[in-house]
Amino acid sequence: MLGQARLPAGGGLMTERPFRAPHHTISNAALIGGGSQPRPGEVSLAHHGVLFLDEMLEFSRHVLEVLRQPLEEGRVAIARAARTAIFPARFMLVGAMNPCPCGFAGDPSRECRCAPLPMARYRDRLSGPLRDRLDLTVEVPALPIDTLSAGAGGESSADVRARVVAARARQTARYAGDGVFTNAELTPPLMAKYCATDPSAMRVLRAAMTRLSLSARGYDRVRKVARTIADLEGDEGVGGDHIAEALQFRAT
């Protein structure tokens, strides 16, 4: 389980991956780092862990935009007159948000009360370039009371964890000697080597590039997600089904 970063008594290696959940009123300097004597921000404190932004669209657009560099490069560079400080910032970004200010857009049982202009302004806080850096976008509808009261069901967390651990083990073995550990870290040359797709997968991907107007960044991210889906299923190659599933998670 992810939790707050802990250090052994007397210092040493971290024993748990960090989990950081800043409030939506945070400043861009507190999120990214800064100060006259540069100090790391939340993105660096979440290095090799999770940065969770609850009510993501309540964060100001300017604050969200500073996430673009660390999401792309895995580090933060803070320039000052005397020097430039570089802090590591390779984290998993998880954001939760409502579909509109009132929260009822798309709800079959409750009417949305938001006017078109405020709704557009609300959604525009998440810019296109930042959306393009998000690998997975999942809509979670409200659950009916019967489902909530039915108790446990479906795949257990233990089973999911076992599949994830097995997929990570496959990636560790595959990339031994390449200087990376996970699919998310793949460079274009490594993607050409490890994310090669069969003809059916390429047909699906070409059609999606046109229909969804995928950017070059989106193209690469779809391939990485498809490679991960294949690993979770224990498949060595990346097929059309893996590409199609990965495309379902792209924001439109």
In short:
The protein is 40% helix and 10% strand. By secondary structure, it is α/β, with parallel strands linked by helices.
What does this structure look like?
The protein has 252 residues and is α/β, with parallel strands linked by helices. The protein has 2 domains: 19-134, P-loop containing nucleotide triphosphate hydrolases (Rossmann fold, 3-Layer(aba) Sandwich), CATH 3.40.50; 157-247, Helicase, Ruva Protein, domain 3 (Orthogonal Bundle). 40% of the residues lie in helices and 10% in strands. It has helices at residues 28-32, 42-45, 61-65, 68-73, 116-123, 128-132, 145-148, 157-174, 188-194, 199-211, 216-232, 240-247, and strands at residues 19-20, 33-34, 39-40, 50-54, 75-79, 84-88, 92-96. The protein has a 3-stranded parallel sheet. Strand 5 and strand 6 (84-88) form a beta hairpin. Helix 11 crosses helix 12. The radius of gyration is 20 Å and the shape is globular. The chain starts with 18 loop residues before the first strand and ends in a 5-residue tail after the last helix. The relative contact order is 0.08.
Global mean pLDDT: 87
How many structural domains? 2
What's the overall geometry? globular
Strand content: 5-15%
N- and C-termini, Cα separation = 32 Å
Structural class: alpha/beta
What oligomeric state is this?
A: single chain
Q: Give a quick account of the main beta sheet: strands, pairing sense, barrel closure.
A: 3 strands, parallel
Give me the side-by-side strand order of the main sheet: 1-4-7
Total helix count?
12
CATH architecture of the largest domain: 3-Layer(aba) Sandwich
Under CATH, the topology of the largest domain can be stated as Rossmann fold
Using only C-alpha atoms, the radius of gyration works out to: 20 Å
Q: Helices and strands, in N-to-C order?
A: EHEEHEHHEEEHHHHHHHH
Going by CATH, the homologous superfamily of the largest domain would be: P-loop containing nucleotide triphosphate hydrolases
Query: Ranges with pLDDT <50 over ≥5 residues?
Result: 1-10
Number of strands: 7
The residue fraction in helices comes out at: 25-40%
What's the CATH C level of the largest domain? Alpha Beta
